[in-house]
Each structure stands twice: as C-alpha cells, then as structure tokens.
C-alpha cells in the first residue's frame, strides 16, 4: 500500500509520477492535511471517485449558506432598562468597518443589529450609551467573549444606570453583568 499525502483546500488533488505510482506531495498554501492509503490495484476511476467524495464532504463541512468559512449571522439586541421612564437612551454603535448610526430608545424600547462574525474570531462592536447626565462606552460584542454566551446567534442586552447585563441562556436570566467603568 502506498501513502498519498494531500492538502485539502476544498477539493482533493492527486499526483502520479511517470511510473504511474502515487507520490507524496505537499502544498504550503493551506495547513489542513490528511492521509489516504491507496492500494496499487486501485483504478484511476476509484481514486477519482474517492477524491470527489472527500471534496464534497469537506465542501459541505466548511460551507454555510453556500459561502465557505462563514459563521452564521448574529443579532445583538439592546434594550433601554433605565429606571427613569422619561429618560431616553441614545446609542451609537460601530465596528472597525461599520458605523451603525445614532439611535434613540425610549423606556423599554430596543435596538437590534445583525452581522456575521469573521472567520478569525476577532469581530468587535462597541457602543456609546448616553442619557441625561451620563455617558459610557462598552464593547457590546467581542467574538471570543460572547459567541458562546449568545447561543451563537442572538445576544440580548439590557442597559441600566449601573451597567449592562447580558441574557444568560443557561439560567434564563439577565445575569451576566458588567458595571460602567
């Protein structure tokens, strides 16, 4: 049995030498590797069929909604929970790429926005929170901190005078709290 080392991109490549024997090879562009054991008696059609099957398998695993290596969309929902029902909350959220604009929230009103976290896990959205006599900033979404806490797709926040609290899907309560600094 001969060993063929291949690097997966989203398809499998084979290489045969002039003696028609499988030769080990590498491609330094990607780092996900695997090994296949191929019998000398395996026909070209069988090799092609196996390669096609593995290609489709990896394409399915690494593709979401037809786009490779994309995370599912996340929604961040922020609710004004200030005690004074007449106090409007002004929110201005941004990322390194997007300015989501200024939004005014009356008591118990919510503002939500959607995005796709990047493949590297470094997605960050930060917001300014202003109301009568107060002004604060907070990183409303940090991928490594929040993805699992947000149940992968929905982050629920309430904003109060003392800070913000995120909904905890394990306890079904807004008990992941951060005080204003």
UniProtKB/TrEMBL annotation:
UniProt xrefs under Pfam families: Self-incomp_S1
Keywords from the UniProt entry: Membrane, Secreted, Self-incompatibility, Signal, Transmembrane, Transmembrane helix
Main localization category: secreted
Domain of life (superkingdom): Eukaryota
Subcellular location: Secreted
Annotated transmembrane regions: 45-64
GO-annotated biological processes: rejection of self pollen
Entry GO terms, CC: extracellular region
Family recorded in the similarity comment: Belongs to the plant self-incompatibility (S1) protein family.
Protein name, UniProt field: S-protein homolog
The species this protein was found in: Cucumis sativus (Cucumber)
